[in-house]
Request: fold
Amino acid sequence: MTPLLKVEDIHTYYGKSHILHGISLEVGRGEVVGLLGRNGVGKSTTLKAIAGLVHPSAGQIVFDGRPIAGLPAYRLARLGIAYVPEDRRIFPLLTITENLRTGLDRHGVGKARKQELLDKVYAYFPVLAERRNQAGGTLSGGEQQMLAIARAMMLEPQIILLDEPTEGLMPRMVSQIREIIEVLHQEGVAVLLVEQNVPLTLDASERVYLIEKGVVRHHAASAELRADDAVIHQYMGV
Amino acid sequence: MGLDAFFAAIPFDQLLIQTVNGIVTGMILALVASGLTLIFGIMDVVNFAHGELFMLGAYVGVLTLAATGNFWVALVCASLLIALLGAVIHLTTLRPLIGRDPLTTILATFGLSLVLQNYALWQFGPVARKIQEPFTGQFAFFYLQYPWYRLVIAGLAAAIIAALWLFLKFGTYGIWIRATTQDRVMAEAMGIPVPWVLTAVFAIGAGMAAASGVLFGPLVGVNHAMGLDWVLRAFIVVVVGGMGNLGGSILAAIFISLLEAYASLFVPPSQAVIVSFVVLILTLLFRPTGLFVPTPK
Reply:
């Protein structure tokens, strides 16, 4: 079966510094895949390249059977690639409902379908429902993270790129994020998860890629790594 | 001389007349400035050609009025045509400069303003044209016969600004515009076609400038240099109101026009403009983020 997303040997530069030195990875339909590595090894840049926010200077990205490298980010969002950035990037002056509407108000989505999608995320995230007319900037860090994920779900994506969703969150929030990933998985949405939280990543994902200095150094099933954490020690230094 | 004597020197009726005058010019200024501040807010582009869009709008008004004889048709035609011109200008001149030094966009729009101004001079000549107001009724206002049309301008300008506000607040495209203003990259990641949103905003700003030009045409002559004066004051308003802040610009437009109107009770109107510059300099010195913006933490 062809994978939903196939990244082949991509290179990116930030100014003159070479960030990605030929990353290759695959995500199957509905699969949860982890991306682990120390700070600054290119995990976030990999997600940005897939989302079309950074354009690779070499290499291929194939999504759903078509090459997408070089397409503008808004086209990719509409093809079904949703991006949840590390710093959440909630629109601070838009209300929660308006934040959701940025992804919802697309051509070809009927009124009933829009309401259905809104009801669905408000059911998952009752906190957001209570504050739907409040400005996004007034939410706490954890609530902003939920809004960022809810907003991504409005695109009805085939894959969600999650960049360190648990960073800086309280343990209770972390387990809630874990549940949301499970819900996405149940719904058949693929997830590419970048994390520093190793136990959560191994628990949530089926496979894991370990990245060092802009290349994939190791690739294994999560179950394997749970049984033997020597590799994790080597690449994460924990 | 006490304060009482000072105020006694200004007749109350003159004060009221100047208040009305100030609000009327303030609303037109607000219309010009809100397009300018909308463009600045969303794309960080200081559009030096804004005054020329105002002037070309007035000329299109002159031409369509001559052809159709209907002021309102001229108003709509000028707004739409100049909005279209704005979209073309954005696509050809500003979009290629996205991501470059802001100085390049300043130079580009400045160059554009010279081109448009000289085009108008070449095409229409140096003699000012007149736009006939749609009605000439007047009412007794103290010792003056005050034209109704002036009040209608203020009302129409307010209506256009209110429509813009409602559109930004509730419309889908309004949400797109606000999202793009707040975080262009994330807006794009949410599937909002940012390059087209920017073009549309430039077109809307241009259309609003053109509408102001037609509305104000009957009060002054239409000539190739009429934009200069307005755009200068609109820039002052945008800075005093807080760059990119729509509400602040509207308040600042009325505030500055009222100050100028009151100042012209004491000095000739051509020198009353100095008041605006004083306000500008004081704002830049003491509240550089704008008078009507809460000081950021």
User: Anything to note?
Assistant: The beta strands of chain B are 138-141, 144-147. The two ends of chain B are 44 Å apart (CA to CA).
